[in-house]
Amino acid sequence: MTGGHAAAGAAAPGDRLPPPLATHRAGEAALLAEYPDTAAVLAAAESLRALELPHLVDLVPAERTLLLAGTAPRDLQDLADLLRHLPAPAAEHSDADEQTLSVTYDGEDLAETAQLLGMSTDALIRAHTGAVWTVAFGGFAPGFPYLVAGDDLRGIDRSRPDDGSAEDGSGPEADPDAPPWDVPRRAEPRTAVPSGAVGLASRYCGIYPRSSPGGWQLIGRTEAELFDVTRTPPALLTPGTRVRFTAQRPSARLSGTASALTRSRRGAATVSERLARRRQQAADSTARTTTALEVLSPGPRLLLQDGGRPGQGAIGVSPSGAFDRGALVRADLAVGNPAHAAVLEALAGPLRVRALAPTIVAVAGAEAALTVHRSDPEGSEIEVPAGSDRDVPIALDPGDELELGPVVHGLRLVLAVRGGIRGVRRHEQADGTGDTPWAERSDTPDSTLDAADAPVLGSLSRDTLSGLGPAPLEAGDVLLAGETSGLDAVPAPYAPALEETPGSAGDPAGADDADDRDPDDGGEVDEPDRPAAGRSRTGQVASDPTPLEIPMLPGPRDELLGRDAMKALLGTDWTVRSDSDRIGVRLDGPSLPVPDGGASLPSEAMVPGAIQVPPSGLPVVFGPDHPTTGGYPVIGVVPRTGIDRLAQAAPGTAVRFRPIDDAAR
Question: Is the pLDDT of residue 535 over 50?
Fold first, then answer.
């Protein structure tokens, strides 16, 4: 789906926008459209947003590309046709399209950056405040804006003054007095850049929405709140927003101590207001819920996951959600929940929980032994061998304990609770021991409902890259389940069969059938997906020489990387590395041949399942918590069923990619 067109340029009022230079398929239901410059990207994005297409799940601008994510493969042709006939957006802008930010120009790199640009610090400040900046795209972290100055919006080459100008003089003209803003990143990135820091890198200006590592040249700081999940939209600066900076006058600044105190008081007030809103959101989300399960032993990592946060890529928020989406659907349906209700996602196991009220649960995903210890001495315990009677409802009474794992095949366990998990109540013992069973605690009503555990953008999923969503669960945490009235009926509770028939974790057929219900294609450092010490590896059985087959769709940058790279990708048995996680499944093997000039490209949007090829030539398959933009080429995209299989691929698993031909798409 690649085609060449004349260069896209400015459209007259009432006209249609020029078509993209080319379009490339990017997975099952997404298109990547190429444009000559950022201005053309933003014009197309604005036009598409105005159409409010119901089948457009996400729209993510980048430097010279625009990603359109549909709901299903059938949407691709409609989206491609639409891009060739987009109406030009309205020329006028409202005040809401512009933000003015006050900046204190005292950055650690201010003098060095001015020297790199060949000007004094005062001249840099005048130029920075005199320019009109536009948010080109978001990425790196939720709310982080990549801003470009006026001329850079259309990619003007100052070495060719007539570049981009029409014969009648109507095209963009470069300002000869404006600096190029093209400065390199720091040779040694800082381990911590403060929230609100304003920096320059390449031709961009960026603002850090939170403290994080970074290598940009810091020229100042702002107190603007760039990202607030209680605000709509949560990002202050979205693609297309114009930004003007104003300098805080040095004479108006307080002494260092007084200024720090003032900032601290102002920040505390802002945080208090935000926490109050978050606590209210947490209270609203857990209204009419019941305490369902207490976590006794969480295992290596225990997260809340649901259907995720699709449609937020433009503000730097990844889709997140359950890694094995088929297991999520199967477990939820087994207990009568909607298909994407929140569940527990446990890495490797073992996991042990206690029922606090009568409830029904179901387990899907990796294979692990399941045991139910009854609180009633006369009750019959349940012991299910790994791989037997999966995805079936299990009734628990108060005090019953459910134990899972460790896994013997696969990697991630999914545990669903009837009514769906609606929140988590953290409990902190006064003596810090946390050993008292929940049912015996006299201070249960005073246990905390943390504002940080409220849904973020409608989801309880933990995003391990950005830190959005409830933190990993610990022993003593209590899960709150929603109402069960109105849910689908469930079959009779599980009763052990006389003869057990083993199944297989991540069964492709079961995953495919269940995932037909899912239309979506989709910080802290995530804990690598490695087995616990002293235990044999999970995933593919070591004695099994057959690699795990992973389907893939070539593109969008397979042509850039060339046939040799694709041949090597498909002809290699790759090994899942121990540093793989929810952000990406990293593969080991012979490096792919990367042609000169093909190792990097201008930042563009990423999708779950993208097979990115960094300069090392070792592929990384993006998981649900992937960065929303990236500058390394994507040779292919793994579809949803393949992502589910990779979710269950433990370190040491051998995988082989299989291309999906046009007839199978």
Answer: no
Q: Which two tokens stand for residue 358?
A: 């009568």
Query: Do residues 589 and 630 make contact, with C-beta atoms less than 8 angstroms apart?
Result: no
β-bridge pairing 421-425 and 382-384: unpaired
Tokens of 63: 């430097």
Taking phi over 0 as left and psi of -120 to 50 as alpha, with beta for the rest, 179 belongs to beta
Confidence of residue 599 (pLDDT cuts 50, 70, 90): confident
pLDDT at 643 over 90: yes
Helix, strand, coil percentages, rounded to 5, for the chain: 20, 30, 50
**Cα–Cα distance measured from residue 434 to residue 502, given in angstroms and rounded to the nearest whole number:** 38
DSSP H stretches of helix in 498-587? 508-515, 558-561, 563-570
- Token pair, residue 127, equals 């130029």
In this prediction, residue 135 carries a pLDDT of 96
Per-residue pLDDT tens digits for 555-587? 999 999 999 999 999 999 999 999 999 999 999
Pairing of the two strands 394-396 and 359-373: antiparallel
Q: CA-to-CA distance for 434 and 440, rounded, in angstroms?
A: 12
The answer to whether the peptide bond before residue 406 is cis (omega within 30 degrees of 0) is: yes
Q: What average pLDDT does the segment 94-108 reach?
A: 86
- Cα 26 to Cα 448: distance, rounded to the nearest angstrom: 44
Q: Where are the beta strands (DSSP E) in 333-439?
A: 343-347, 351-355, 359-373, 382-384, 394-396, 401-417, 421-425
Q: Which of 247-261, 281-295, 509-523, 527-541 has the lowest mean pLDDT?
A: 509-523
DSSP 185: P
CA atoms of 148 and 136, how far apart (whole Å): 6
218 with 197: CB under 8 angstroms? yes
* Res 257: pLDDT: 46
294, amino acid identity: E
Whole-number Cα distances in Å, 170 to 372, 514, 615: 75, 55, 41
CB atoms within 10 A of CB 7: 11
Per the CB < 8 A criterion, the answer to whether 634 and 612 are in contact is: yes
Q: What pLDDT, on a 0 to 100 scale, did the predictor assign at position 566?
A: 97
Are the C-beta atoms of 561 and 600 separated by less than 8 Å? no
pTM above the 0.85 mark? Answer: no
Do residues 360 and 493 make contact, with C-beta atoms less than 8 angstroms apart?
Answer: yes
Q: 353 forms bridges with which residues in the sheet?
A: 295, 402
Question: What is the rounded distance in angstroms from the CA atom of residue 36 to the CA atom of residue 57?
Answer: 24
Residue recorded with tokens 């139910």: 372
| pLDDT on residue 399 | 97
